[in-house]
Amino acid sequence: MNQLYDFKGTMVCKRIFMLTALAVILSVFNQALAHFQLLYTEEVNLDKPTTLDMRLVFGHPLENGHVMDMGNPMAFYYIHKGKKVDLLATLQPITWQGASNKAAAFSTQVKVKRNGDYIFVVVPAPYYEKSEDIYIQQITKSFVNKAGMPTGWNEPLGLKTEIVPLNKPTNILAGSTFSGIVLSAGKPVAGAELEIEWINGALDLKSNGFGSNRVEPPPSALVAVTDVNGVFTFGIPRAGTWGFAALGVGPDKEYQDKELSQDAVIWIHASELK
């Protein structure tokens, strides 16, 4: 029996069966709709001080394909042991090469010295999707750890919407599962739909583009749905970087007099068991 905790510290005992906590289906939606805000660095488990080379890209990583222009983010920072470090001024504009087009993106270099968890957050400017006549804003989290010391990876950050991991997000084993809680304004969201993507082929950070060593993606998007407590669980079939986007769960529903899909995104890393 798994033991979950609410955010007031009260223990809640609950059995999680894959068939009830997980709904992974072949979506009827075309995979091209699966926009994903990337917040990526190659190494997420560090054993010594280093400078992270990071990329912020808005695209379709599972397709290894089309990319969209990013505007200047509204916020970009990391949280380390409860301290917020603003990184917005470190961003440098770049051009990212997709399979068939180029788009505006950002790079940054971030020094990591102290042990513990570094929770990176980007709040991008809303993106206008002309084909759907809506705006999309994907509030995104990713994680880096130094020296294996846990210092808050499972704590909510008080974002408008976010996914709080229930497994250490830098240390998932391929073939195991990943679970998270979807929050909107700090409260769990039941029945939230999540699109799931895997970075298909290593990103080329030198030339700023998707890599060529891709595999054929599934014909439709992978989708999970949260249970009554806002929890989802997904079986991780292979190593690499996995993204989860809870669609339209944020409290903000309009932007510039148009519909806004305010999404929560989280990126995790899965390794092969050696």
CATH topology call:
Immunoglobulin-like
Radius of gyration: 18 Å
The CATH first-level class comes to Mainly Beta
**Low-confidence regions:** 1-33
Average pLDDT number: 88
In DSSP terms (H or I, runs of 4 or more residues), the helix count works out at 1
What's the β-strand tally?
Answer: 24
CATH superfamily: Immunoglobulins
Number of domains as seen in the coordinates: 1
Strand content: over 45%
- Tell me what the CATH architecture is: Sandwich
Largest sheet: 13 strands, mixed
What are the secondary-structure elements, in order, as H or E? EEHEEEEEEEEEEEEEEEEEEEEEE
Shape: globular
**Class of secondary structure makeup:** mainly beta
Percentage of residues assigned to helices: under 10%
Spatial gap, N to C terminus: 27 Å
Compact overview of the structure:
With 274 residues, the chain is mainly β. The protein has a single domain, classed as Immunoglobulin-like (Sandwich), CATH 2.60.40.10. The chain is built from one helix and 24 strands.
